[in-house]
Design brief:
Number of strands: 5
Shape: globular
Distance between the termini: 12 Å
Order of helices and strands: HHEEHEHEE
Radius of gyration: 14 Å
Number of domains: 1
Helix content: 25-40%
Low-confidence stretches: 3-35
Largest sheet: 5 strands, mixed
Mean pLDDT: 77
Oligomer: single chain
Structural class: alpha+beta
Strand content: 15-25%
Strand order of the largest sheet: 1-2-3-4-5
């Protein structure tokens, strides 16, 4: 339980750092086929105003997660997409903010896409 708390705190710090880095003036110049291909292996479980829950099959690449995140967010600048590869470990509904994701759910996430900074944070599990 203590290691899950440390992971959640570290994850929160990473996300805050990525989001406070500044809004990059980057246009999502992805081709439609890339977005469709990425979303063919992912399922949007829930999408709230600024936070979405996405389930992607194992075997994803960072590029496919970026494309899926961009596709989910569309034109929304303030949009974070939390990505899991196991639907049973993800929240059923999108919370209003990142901090509202349960620590156990956050610890099980595979990645987070932050649309405003065009950043993908791939999460790795720490083994002790």
């Amino acid at each position: 339980m203590k290691s899950q708390f440390k992971l959640a705190v570290a994850l929160s710090t990473l996300i805050t750092s990525a989001l406070s880095f500044g809004t990059a003036d980057v246009q999502a110049q992805q081709s439609r086929p890339d977005a469709e291909k990425a979303m063919s292996t992912c399922k949007l479980q829930s999408d709230a105003e600024a936070l979405a829950v996405l389930i992607c099959e194992k075997g994803w690449t960072e590029k496919s997660l970026r494309d899926a995140g961009k596709s989910v967010c569309g034109a929304r600048t303030l949009c974070n997409v939390w990505i899991w590869d196991d639907a049973a470990k993800a929240p059923k509904n999108s919370p209003k903010k990142d901090a509202d994701i349960a620590k156990t759910e956050a610890a099980a996430a595979a990645a987070v896409w932050a649309n405003d900074s065009q950043s993908l944070l791939v999460l790795s599990k720490v083994r002790r």
